[in-house]
Specification:
eight-stranded mixed beta sheet, five-stranded mixed beta sheet
């Protein structure tokens, strides 16, 4: 067992004063207003955070007379209200003020945990006066005392609908248990059901806190504010009413979509959509496309696309499709960091054009894609630039990107076969959608997805690009029909003389 110094013993006793006072713990633990620190200009939590923490404290005190009570709290809100900070404070309070506390944190995606939730926890752990009592790693925060590191800890846990066992053993009889769902709207029902099994321990201090943007009008998160609202303390928070949020951005969204649009209801007002769901492509549609047999018709042209990375953490993705077969020719993914020299990417693309002899080659001509397409064109290949933000051929879509995704979504339902790729599945099911004031389909921007902890949907955009423009069939021209090689007649693969 670790030997405590006199100062450490005094700090332990000090922390114990906040066992049932999360708000007091937050005020006492971090250097609010202290010059030279990250919190020099901040006096404490935002109003809604303060109210939430105080309410938790009151319910903890009430629990003393009701040992079977489980504290269940649900928050749905717009963007940028400080959910990740509050999650971090709950975890730190739970560990700091009760020995052998167990915390488990999950989110809608692993990316949300690793890029948003966990970095925020790292920040507040670093600022804490009690940080030396715990060890912080990429997936856990646990006691520095070797005898307690397995029983006094917080763990980041990713979920799977087909492997929910990680939540089945979540018990801590006679101690404290803190279970947190971040971006809870997209966590499936089976995970909620398994996690609820941890609520059965008697004489255990149990707190189940769920947070999220109300993106779905069905499911367990919605039910926290509906038929099960009597079991949950629930809050719906309008981002415009929270200190320090980007009011200018919210105003622009309202101007673009209308205040009562589902887009604004979800992302600003913290209200559930009137529609059933803001997820544009559902997981069942994607799963069916991954499992079905790949087929195409005689004469279907071979199409090739290139989605170009905007940064080192994104991928350049090259994809192929022949009719309803988008699987047989495997996709190529190239890390953006590997092709900072655009001529390296050009060389790779040209090699693939020569290898596969596509009937049409599409590329994203926006931004950095323009020079890449120009160079390939200069080398004698016919290329088709796709302006993602350009005008849509369909007046029901706000721009070209929305049009391509709409055509791809229809194809997924009509028999399109795709590769069994987790990256592609995440990209296709990640974007949300809304409508502008003209009632045109508008797909969520990549920047907004990244703000939610999701990766840029490079695979999804590359697949969607294969539906940008119709390409005529190629009956009677292939080597199996006329004795010619494809490069003899193909307008893409054949260099200009």
């Amino acid at each position: 067992m670790r030997t405590l110094t006199a100062d450490d013993r005094a700090l332990v006793e000090f922390m114990a004063e906040f066992t049932h006072d999360p708000y007091g713990h937050v005020l006492a633990t971090y250097p609010w207003g202290k010059p030279g620190t990250e919190l020099a200009e901040q006096a404490g939590p935002r109003d809604w955070q303060r109210e939430y923490l105080i309410d938790i404290g009151k319910k903890l005190v009430e629990k003393k007379t009701d040992p079977h009570r489980v504290i269940q709290e649900a928050v749905c809100s717009g963007h940028d209200i400080g959910k990740s900070a509050l999650v971090s404070w709950l975890i730190k309070w739970g560990l700091d003020t009760c020995a052998d506390t167990r915390c488990m944190i999950t989110a809608n995606t692993e990316a949300q945990l690793r890029t948003k939730t966990w970095p925020e926890l790292a920040k507040w752990h670093r600022l804490s006066i009690a940080k030396h009592f715990f060890v912080f790693t990429d997936t856990a925060l646990f006691s520095a005392d070797a005898e307690h590191k397995k029983t006094w800890r917080a763990d980041m846990v990713t979920w799977s609908e087909h492997n929910s066992e990680a939540f089945a053993g979540l018990h801590n009889l006679g101690k404290r248990l803190v279970l947190i769902f971040d971006e809870a709207s997209k966590i499936p029902k089976i995970i909620w059901e398994v996690a609820s099994g941890a609520l059965t321990d008697e004489h255990t201090e149990i707190i189940w806190a769920v947070f999220g943007n109300p993106t779905r009008n069905t499911g367990p998160f919605r039910e926290c504010f509906g038929k099960f609202r009597h079991r949950w303390g629930n809050r719906q928070i309008d981002s415009r009413q929270v200190e320090g949020t980007n009011k200018k951005l919210f105003k622009e969204w309202i101007e673009d979509h209308g205040e009562d649009s589902d887009w604004v209801r979800v992302r600003v007002r913290g209200m559930f959509p009137r529609g059933s769901d803001l997820q544009y492509i559902d997981g069942e549609r994607v799963l069916a496309a991954q499992r079905r047999e790949a087929r195409h018709n005689y004469g279907d042209p071979l199409l090739m696309s290139l989605d170009i990375a905007r940064g080192g953490e994104d991928n350049c993705v090259i994809r192929f499709r022949r009719g309803l077969d988008a699987r047989s020719v495997p996709p190529i993914r190239i890390p953006g960091s590997a092709v900072r020299d655009s001529m390296v990417l050009v060389a790779k693309v040209v090699d693939l054009i020569e290898l596969h002899k596509p009937d049409a080659f599409f590329y994203d001509e926006t931004g950095v894609g323009g020079p890449v397409g120009d160079r390939i064109r200069q080398m004698g290949y016919s290329v088709i630039g796709v302006p993602f933000g350009g005008e849509s051929p369909d007046p029901h879509c706000a721009n070209m990107r929305a049009y391509m995704w709409a055509r791809m979504r229809d194809a997924l339902g009509d028999g399109l076969a795709i590769d069994d790729s987790t990256l592609l599945e995440q990209d296709l099911t990640g974007p949300e959608f809304g409508h502008n004031k003209r009632d045109q389909l508008l797909l969520e921007a990549k920047e907004h997805m990244k703000a939610r902890g999701l990766a840029s949907p490079d695979d999804g955009d590359a697949l969607a690009m294969l539906f940008a423009y119709p390409i005529a069939p190629v009956f009677g021209l292939g080597s199996q029909n006329s004795g010619k090689t494809r490069s003899d007649w193909n307008p893409i693969a054949k260099k200009r003389r």
